[in-house]
Amino acid sequence: MITVNEQVFTLHTRRTTYQMKADAYRVLLHTYYGARVGSADLSYPIRHADRGFSPNPNEAGDWRGYSLDTLPQEYSSCGVGDYRLPSLELELPDGSRLTDLRYTGYERRSGKYTLEGLPAFFGGDEWETLVIFLEDAAAQITVELYYGVLEERDLITRTVRVVNKGDKPVRLCRAASLCLDFQRPDLDFITFDGCHVMERCPHRTPLRHGVQSVGSVRGASSHHHNPFVILCSRDAAEDHGVCYGAMLLYSGNFEAAAERTQLEHNRLVMGIHPYHFRWTLEPGAAFTAPEAALVCSPDGFAGMTHQYHRAIREHLIRDPYRGGRRPVLINNWEATEFNFNAEKLVEIAQGAAGLGIELFVMDDGWFGTRDTDLSGLGDWSVNLKKLPGGLEALVPRIQKMGMKFGLWIEPEMVSENSDLYRAHPDWALGAPGRPQTRGRSQLVLDFAREEVREYIYQAMRQILDSAEISYVKWDMNRSLSDVWSAALPPDRQGEVYHRYVLGLYEVLERLRQDYPNLFIEGCSGGGGRFDAGMLYYTPQIWCSDNTDAIDRLRIQYGTSFCYPASTMGAHVSAVPNGQTGRDTPMETRGVVAMSGTFGYEMDLGKVSQEERETIAQQVQRYKDHWDLIENGDYYRLSSPFEEGPFTAWAHVAPDRRRALVSLVTGSMRAAPPFVTLRIKGLDPDLEYRVNGEETYRGDVLAQVGYPVPILMGDYQSLQLVLEAE
């Protein structure tokens, strides 16, 4: 997968090639990334010409045609003649902020590199690793560029390690995880943006001159922008065109910035956001940037999506249910909010009994003085007024109904009205002499502090050891502000944001090691921290607090470009929906939720007998097809963001002999048109029986389509089960 020939480094995957070259001046040039080609030196298209006001390195002498400002680089320098986006910014002991990186050597290793304290893709002999060494001799800084190559999945991972070889501290102000230079002008930039309850909506714009960027400075990856972006050719669509996916495995502040240059070329730089980032590197110390993961698809978005989904399922997620089906759950939040006791929870569980539901989840309100969101966070002891006898008494009652037990926690936060805050007010983020900013009436615990992490870890252990708990929903319900830590000196406050994320990862990893069979679902007001970094610790994430089925079509559509269905927490909730007031049929709500991890969020003791029968049928249908949904290839058949009679998608088995096709209509109108649904991903030569009735060839369903019946009423749904004869 990796070849080296006279300082030309070529990385091959099944369908793509990535290449770089150290030139005569030891500048590491990026020469190619695209459809697979041979290992020849691909630097020949790089041109050298005098571009006014583009300086020339000292080694170039009087040759004005050689400038860092015009060359495609693998990891860009700063302050020495390249005025485009930098990859690395340092503040050196003399006060200068210059970085000039030159190639010094490489190592090639079998297997995948690992990262201490950070999430990363994993694997064995199917991977190869390349490490390229750069240095700034004057600054006494070395930079190690790591590349992991997973051939079968067209995946190339990248990370960077910066080492201070000098005898004085150096301050790191930016350390991008990747830099990609494209010698082509015709690229669009696709980002996935939104807000709380409307996350990850795709937005596509042509790259224009200057810098376009998305990112987060909220301390989490955020509802507003996702650390996954796409650069693609102007003609790229689901089944054609070149597209490049770039994903950052990080759950804190990030930036993805794209720049179109004077030469009509484009550069993408992605990594930790430089906002309030200033990391001190003591002599001999090293800093490791978060991992980034690249997939290039020469054949459109679907090919990229499939490779990301497979790689995430196989080489990122550590799931206690790996190879098996996760339990169908019922959550009490939308049924009760804070207003419950043990008997009410048992009543809801009794309503779920007999419907095939396998996991009961107790949400917020079970601990401390937590009767509203104004108190209790931080005091992780059971509220015995609500739950007499504690979890030890409640959990067996639920288990006797044939269900496992799970609960909600929010360990990163603290209420001012709590015993914890009264004992340790300095454990919350906040600068001295300033009033603290609140979000959802709560403050943020300083996870950069070891004693805070230890307190939370021990509190979680006490809860988990008190009863048989198989599932935890780990929530985070506000953005970080007032980011100042009492545990760090003034000149190291720029480390707090990153140390917070590292501290979160540490606690989650310790719990995973201690409780390997515990299933943790991530959450941050829904999808406010839906990123690949969290998936390494929490194999599914609550996709959005918005459970409206029609809005979820958009949210789950955008999420699907990178993240597989098995990572998307999705539930059927009551109507009218609390976010939109919309009334959607139970069948449609089930079809939409079934395209993620499946469950219910309502009081099942109050539903009609007809609805109970529908729920039991939905649960059984999910159990019949869970392997297709969670492990099949996902095809977007139509977009909810475009005008059309329906939104449709398909889950297709890897051997293409089975498929589950789902369709949801919009608002009904009189005299509706007759429409067909073209189904992708099938074997063109196989005959497929649809819902046990009509038979069609795969090529016919792809090119001519399946005739969609007229579905009367708004927001109707249809599911088709296709099985090869």
Q: What overall geometry do the principal axes of the alpha carbons give?
A: globular
List the uncertain runs: none
Mean pLDDT: 97
Strand percentage lies at 25-35%
Largest sheet: 10 strands, antiparallel
**Annotation field: number of helices:** 12
User: What is the helix content?
Assistant: 10-25%
* Oligomeric state of this protein: single chain
Distance between the termini: 39 Å
Question: Care to count the β-strands?
Answer: 38
Rg, alpha carbons: 27 Å
What class, by secondary structure content? alpha+beta
Provide a concise account of the structure shown.
The protein is of the alpha+beta class. Strands 6, 7, 8, 9, 11, 12, 14, 15, 19 and 20 form a ten-stranded antiparallel sheet that branches.
Can you offer a commentary on this structure?
The protein is of the alpha+beta class. It has 12 helices and 38 strands. Strands 6, 7, 8, 9, 11, 12, 14, 15, 19 and 20 form a 10-stranded antiparallel sheet that branches. Strand 11 and strand 12 form a beta hairpin. The longest helix has 23 residues. The two termini are 39 Å apart. The model has no long low-confidence stretch (mean pLDDT 97).
What is the fold's blueprint, element by element?
Blueprint lengths: L1 E4 L2 E5 L3 E7 L5 E8 L52 E4 L10 E9 L16 E10 L4 E10 L4 E10 L5 E13 L4 E9 L2 E9 L3 E7 L11 E6 L9 E6 L5 E7 L5 E7 L6 E3 L4 E3 L3 E6 L3 H15 L13 E3 L1 H4 L5 H11 L6 E4 L27 H10 L4 E6 L3 E2 L4 H5 L19 E2 L5 H17 L4 E4 L21 H19 L4 E4 L9 H4 L4 E3 L6 H11 L8 E6 L12 H8 L3 E5 L7 H23 L1 E4 L9 E7 L5 E8 L9 E3 L9 E4 L4 E3 H6 L2 E3 L8 E8 L1
Parallel strand pairs: 21-22, 21-30, 22-23, 23-26, 26-27, 27-28, 28-29, 29-30
Antiparallel strand pairs: 1-2, 2-3, 3-4, 5-10, 6-7, 7-8, 8-9, 9-19, 9-20, 10-17, 10-18, 11-12, 11-14, 13-16, 14-15, 15-20, 16-17, 24-25, 31-32, 32-33, 33-38, 34-37, 35-36, 35-38
